[in-house]
Amino acid sequence: CKPDLDPIGCNCPTEPQQLVGIRTEACPCNGDNDPRRGITCAVTRECEQNDLIETPCLCSEQYNSGNCTCTQEYHDDQQCICDQSGQSEVYDLTSCRSTKICIGDNIPIGCTCPNISQSGIAGCAQTRLCSQLNREELSQTDISICSCYGFGDPRNECSSQTQECKLASVSELNDIPVGVCACYEFGDPRIECSQSQDCNYESADL
After folding, report:
1. 172-177: long-range contacts (C-beta < 8 A, 24 or more apart)?
2. How far is CA 183 from CA 48, 62, 175, in A?
């Protein structure tokens, strides 16, 4: 049997790696080290504690992070791999793919756009950027989604990394959203603060 030349009854190769591309109808799934596991053969081995994943295994209570194969119970880790075999006993492929957060236009395939993102994602028009959040919204957003701002960040986790808005220099203000540090009446260089008067304006109180 060879890829694209695998009639029923052909002689199956004895080396596992040679099974790649051969239909399971011609050569049934053969052991945990069958390279078709997770593609046309379902992954059946359950991961053990500190598993090296030398052969594909299902995420489990003992091991549920990294490159294990997602299951209906264990699929929160973004690195887990969706089983594509379509077998009845595996975690549904469409459901599995939908647990992945998009990093590009439908990348990975079938992914779900996040509600909030640090940067723009192609194909996710409804996703709001961290820079579009006001202080209240930012205070409810995890730092793993929106990293700490150098000035005006209201989150407790950012207290050691952020300073008061009034301490920001003109150049530093450019990186701070107006929802975090409101526009200054004078000398604010941010595009959204076009109403800010020049510092040389006669009524500026410096």
Report:
1. 175/149, 175/150, 176/149, 176/150, 176/151, 176/152, 177/130, 177/131, 177/132, 177/133, 177/149
2. 55, 51, 13
Please count the other Cβ atoms lying within 10 Å of the Cβ belonging to residue 79.
10
Determine the Cα–Cα distance for residues 28 and 154; give it in Å rounded to an integer: 58
CA distances (Å), 74 to each of 47, 64, 71, 96, 110, in order?
A: 11, 6, 5, 10, 18
Pick from 39, 49, 102: nearest CA to 69: 39
Ranges of each domain in the chain: 1-99, 149-206
Q: What is the pLDDT of residue 201?
A: 54
Beta partners for residue 104, in sequence order: 107
The stretches in the chain having pLDDT less than 50 are 204-206
Q: Which two tokens stand for residue 112?
A: 């779900």
Q: How far is residue 153's CA from residue 161's CA, in Å, rounded to a whole number?
A: 9
pLDDT of residue 200: 64
What's the pLDDT score for residue 197? 83
* CB atoms near residue 113 (< 10 Å): 15
- For residue 188, give the H/E element and its range: none
Q: Tens digits of per-residue pLDDT, 10-37?
A: 999 999 999 999 999 999 999 999 999 9
Return the pLDDT at 206: 42
- Asked whether the beta carbons of 126 and 113 are under 8 A apart, the reply is yes
